[in-house]
Amino acid sequence: MQTAIIESLRETTDGQEAERILRACTHCGFCTATCPTYQLTGDERDSPRGRIYLIKQTLEGAEPTARTQFHLDRCLTCRACETTCPSGVEYARLADIGRGLVDSQVERPPRERAIRWGLRHIVAHRRRFAFLVALGRAMSPLLVGRLAPLRDKIPPRRTSTGQDSHSTTAHPRRMLMLQGCVQPSAAPNTNAAARRVFDRLGISLIEAETAGCCGALHQHLSHRETAREQARRNIDAWWPYIADGAEALVMTASGCGAQVAEYGHLLRDDPAYADKAARVTELTHDVSDILAKQDLSGLGDIGTGRRVAYHPPCTLQNAPGLHDHVAAILAQAGFKLTHVGDAHLCCGSAGSYSILQPEMAGELRRHKLDNLESGTPDVIATANIGCQLHLEAATGVPVRHWIELLA
Question: What are the residues whose beta carbons fall under 8 Å from the beta carbon of 41, sequence distance 6 or more?
């Protein structure tokens, strides 16, 4: 694709990266076949190809409008388009650049600004989010009428599945684990289950207390410098453990894993952090990728034929650097995996998407649950906290992080 990026952007890091990505695009349209939003609306501007043109026009000096912003907002950043692109177009990186450029020129309505402020300043902070969840649960009976839909956004109380293994034996093999922002209060059993499973395998999972949000929320809400600051803070928190021999960074939320796996790219031009960030990217693995390399014979036939519908999150299917071994691990453990049609399509969670685009997210969820429930599973399993919360709000089938099934 030919480009004519305006001079003020041409020599910037973003301008050069955007031009490189745009020039790889041949406008072939293969991306439209796997784009969930295009399949729903049939609008070219809701396809990767259409959004690429909207971004290109902005980079070339056309004044973006609220309509430009609207169609870029409706992108899930699921990256399914990248898996079918024969030219290797790095669409997600271009989308982040394009959104940032458009948001710098198009002012959002007050309500949208307030919601996005809350996402960045509350949801992205573990203790603030925990307080919000507790408050929401206490106020839930009062959410009636027009406020009733807010109940779906409040995570249910979880019944403990066993003691958190902070107190388990310290093993010679050690790996780092990210607490996350939402997961500790919304699904505390996930990391607790991971610790128990790894403990049985002779591996200690440790957390750096000063590590915080991975930066994904800020990255995709056009606050990319804040995302880089969060990456630096996390690297500082993890580095003493890495220097002391921690083997890996184990991600129990694939959304966080996809972001941390990008640290090397995000900080590639930072002389103080580029090498450390590249090392962090190298060490970052989804929990299933780590377990697939271990001897799991000791777990036994714990599934006993229990029927599981597995929903692979987009970040685990499509993000470079992450690998999905969940289905194979569950089958090895004795679970029966039901057939799930259109497993490649997004469930509509997509980080903050289900809050910012509730109608589109709801329609995607209905399609996803139809497929997940078609095999009459005993439980729906996934690998990301966002998918878990989004799906369980609209189904009577229990939705769990898959690691809980092994614990």
Answer: none
